[in-house]
């Protein structure tokens, strides 16, 4: 899952980015409103964590512009403005969640995970397809009730495919949602990672759709 | 005690009228008396000349009238109309009206009016004339009088008329003056009423459509009001900026604590700092509004966005949030403070609820009662009192900011709202907020 953290306070942004990365997120950072605007319009994020008091462009007006322009990624507002009129205004501008500073870092992680799930029409943290179960909150995977350990990149890719189940996901899309902006891996990396996942979870889970990408299909939808 | 301007003006007007009118009446009465006397005197003088022209003497020195005055009044007994002829201090002839009495001749210049007393101490006014008749060595003294009572009666009836008409005039003047002052001062009263409305929040500024002299005052007052609001706004924004500026570093600290071994006590410290910052932020934001010109808020319109926010914040928990907010209800609380108040209460209820939170506003006499109920575990009756006295710290165990109810307490105290707790019919906690009635705008 790839997210944009738009926060101008360096220390806070780095700290939070660290916590998010540990929880399986790929994090891009923007330290001003203009950069955040540019990144949202050019990159594919599963979530944006948006500070309202950004320099150069106010967060609330950014959010309004995005919604107007048809960008519908979930947005979590992370701000020092803790009063309810501000929260109401934030949701009014199109936010999906709101966390006031100072915050429990893990609360932001949980809320970020829940937002991404909800944006994919998935309300429960546990996703099951066939014999495979993924806990999107804990980042754990089971096969027939037996825990399986994946590397962080493997997990990110599996989680993205699970959330996008019954839909073909291209290699480019996978790279966009799993790798940070400054990394530009060879598309072979995707095939290598998919191969490793298949070896651990069984080859029938992820189908290859020739020329288009990969697909996780729920049995009843088949 | 300071007298009001209208009392002063009315006082001056009444005193002036009451002092001047009698003076004026007295002068008129004196003038009429003088005129009545002079007309009476001219009558006397005419009789005097008439009688003198008909007085004659016989050869043996007797005095005779060639013709008596034809006026009946000189025939009627004690009519006051008398004439008397005397010579050398001895009365020779009198009018029939004197009968057998005589008048003491007054010491007066000829043809000058003089007051004297007649039979039965009757007040008389008359004049004398001294003439020399042919054949008589001694001059003859002629006296003619009329009743003074005739003048007095005329003057009295004139005075009565005068008193009545001046009294009426005074009354009309006073009424007109009072009306004039009331009307003249009406704009002042309008301005006072305008100020009262500004104070109570039903008008933002004074209406300057007043007479030009007062409208200058009203404009100046509006400038003072604007200045005061600006100061409040500045103070509020300074406090707000400070609070916001503190929160980001606080968030950084909070994050670093997690990597420390001894994090727990520091976490409590950060929570304490956050509580203090939020407390002062709330007070700074609300204090000016609660004590200054208060604002009215439409309950439903203000709370609707907060309901949406609470639903979104608790989207994962699938809490059913029902709201019954009659659109016509209004409360005398600033809209933002109302949102803060209700937002915190709803958030708290949604945290504890199992499946459902009900928000209901009802009219209770003049007041508005806002009830928030949940189907959560509730609070034991014995602990409900502590909820308030301890500053509502019950929700600290829950994730989230956990300071919301302390803010509710601050705001309720600022706006003097009553808070009551009870066991909700749904099973959880029921909180009732009572807003004092809003006077009609």
From TrEMBL, chain A:
Residues 2-116 form the Response regulatory domain. GO terms for molecular function: phosphorelay response regulator activity; transcription cis-regulatory region binding. The modification 4-aspartylphosphate is found at residue 51. Residues 124-218 bind DNA. GO terms for biological process: regulation of DNA-templated transcription. Residues 124-218 form the OmpR/PhoB-type domain. Keywords: DNA-binding, Phosphoprotein, Transcription, Transcription regulation, Two-component regulatory system. Gene3D superfamilies: 3.40.50.2300, 6.10.250.690, Winged helix-like DNA-binding domain superfamily/Winged helix DNA-binding domain (1.10.10.10). SUPFAM superfamilies: CheY-like (SSF52172). SMART domains: REC (SM00448), Trans_reg_C (SM00862). The keyword Transcription applies. The keyword Transcription applies. One of its GO terms (cellular component) is cytosol. This is Two-component system OmpR family response regulator. It comes from Panacagrimonas perspica.
Automatic annotation (TrEMBL), chain B:
It is found in: Membrane. It is an enzyme of class 2 (transferase). It catalyses: ATP + protein L-histidine = ADP + protein N-phospho-L-histidine. GO terms for cellular component: plasma membrane. Residues 182-233 form the HAMP domain. The chain crosses the membrane at residues 158-179. Its main location: membrane. Residues 241-439 form the Histidine kinase domain. It comes from the Bacteria. Its EC number is 2.7.13.3. The keyword Lipid biosynthesis does not apply. Keywords: Kinase, Membrane, Phosphoprotein, Transferase, Transmembrane, Transmembrane helix, Two-component regulatory system. InterPro entries: HAMP_dom (IPR003660), HATPase_C_sf (IPR036890), HATPase_dom (IPR003594), His_kinase_dom (IPR005467), HisK_dim/P_sf (IPR036097), Sig_transdc_His_kin-like_C (IPR004358), TCS_sensor_his_kinase (IPR050428). GO terms for molecular function: phosphorelay sensor kinase activity. The keyword Zinc does not apply. This is histidine kinase. It comes from Panacagrimonas perspica.
